[in-house]
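Suppose you are handed only these lines of text.
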Amino acid sequence: MYVLVAGGLVLGALALGETLGWSDAELTLMRANWIGSLPATPSDPTNRVADDPKAVKFGHALFFDARLSVDGTVSCATCHQPASGFADNIPLSEGKGTNTRNAPSIIGSAYSPHQFWDGRADSLWAQALAPLEASAEHATNRMYVTGLIATQYRSSYEGLFGPMPPIANAYTTLPPKPGPFNDPEVQEAWTKLGSEFQDQVNLVFVNAGKAIAAYERQLKPGAARFDEYARTILENGDPSGLLSLNTDETAGLKLFYGRAGCVQCHSGPRFTDDQFHNTGVPANPNVNLPDTGRTQGLEVWSKSAFTCRSAFNDQPSTCNAPTPDQLVDLKVSELGAFKTPSLRNLALTAPYMHAGQFRDLRAVVQHYNRAPKALQGQSELKPLNLTDTEVGQLVAFLETLKSEPNAPLELLRAPK
Ligand code: HEC
Ligand code: HEC
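From them, the structure of the protein bound to heme C can be written out as follows.
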């Protein structure tokens, strides 16, 4: 069949796909999954420096700077490692302690309307503030970060945001206590500061988050083998592009669209619908408290000082937050639900799921095949009755989604 096409038969736009047995419905799904359908990075009006090259540079430095941790050993890149698809390869991430969740890849996270597995941050800049103050991650606090910026990054900061507020002058050396925000001594220092200085510290802290977000916005997914195959079919390209996938991999793709039903949630160019679903993933036995997923995410979000409802949103009219009534309903209906992750670059980001429950992709697909009952709430899955061969084909397809990130090379390593 390839030969006929290569031989110069004049075919319509979809003819190559039809010749290979793809239905119109499958071709529509394929086009939606194709990287060529990835739109430009959505604007973030809540962050006025989101696309400022100076902010990208500042954020790049902060992302890789381990001085932003209690003892100078942890940076964002400790758990979001460029060589591991900007994730890490352990079930529960390790910073200054052990996390209760697995580190997701942050490639393409600027496209995601909710950050974290439970969506508890509503912007990329608000997300960046949480690990800095968490005892299991950087284990430092906003006062310390303000001091570090005042002493180490003042000109980068002021070049973007204008003069640092008066509190920065109190931090001519690093503040003495770098511990996590929930540390009692840090809390005492924070209370003593009083509301006016607290506001100033919060502003500097948020601006640091906005610079980090500007950097993260530059990390986009690149074309994988799947995309070469899809492009050939969708654009009626050189048939040699069809060799990008072998027969097991195309059989896996067919299952992904068909009997396995994966595309129901893993749709679009990042292979995610950006929604929350309960898929009955078992708990990680090393995590003590039950993880209610979206339910606890909504609770944390509603109490956060750094949401789009706060004064830190640079364009408040864009805030599309649930009302208190909606919040009550969502906490019930989304019990045990987690954010659908992107499937791009899975080959680099094992283990899988919100707490690294599955060591490899075969274990993931077997979970979908069995569709166990959820521990909390209702799983949306149904058993698939796939044979072992079919499970292997799906795994083979998932591995074709590996690619180099689409980002300037110098942003993929620590700045010089
Ligand atoms: C100790 C390891 C660790 C460090 C350090 C760390 N992260 Fe993470 N990161 C994680 C884990 C684990 C999650 C998922 C947590 C959750 O969902 O509850 C996560 C989630 C994220 C997400 C959300 C991605 C998504 O798809 O929802 C982004 C973005 C992110 N981190 C960026 C950062 C930035 C920026 C820094 C530095 C300021 C940072 N991380 C520091 C482990 C880490
Ligand atoms: C009902 C929506 C839904 C369907 C259908 C679905 N997924 Fe998922 N997928 C999710 C959600 C939600 C998660 C995260 C669950 C968690 O961590 O608890 C996930 C996680 C994954 C992961 C782990 C990714 C990572 O980075 O950890 C893989 C791989 C995956 N799904 C592949 C598939 C395959 C293959 C199919 C079809 C057999 C499928 N999914 C069907 C929603 C879905």
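What can we learn from it? The radius of gyration is 23 Å. The pocket of heme C (ligand 1) is lined by residues 63, 74, 76, 78-80, 93-95, 99, 101-104, 106, 109, 112, 115-118, 124, 127-128, 131-132, 137-138, 212, 216 (CB under 6 Å).
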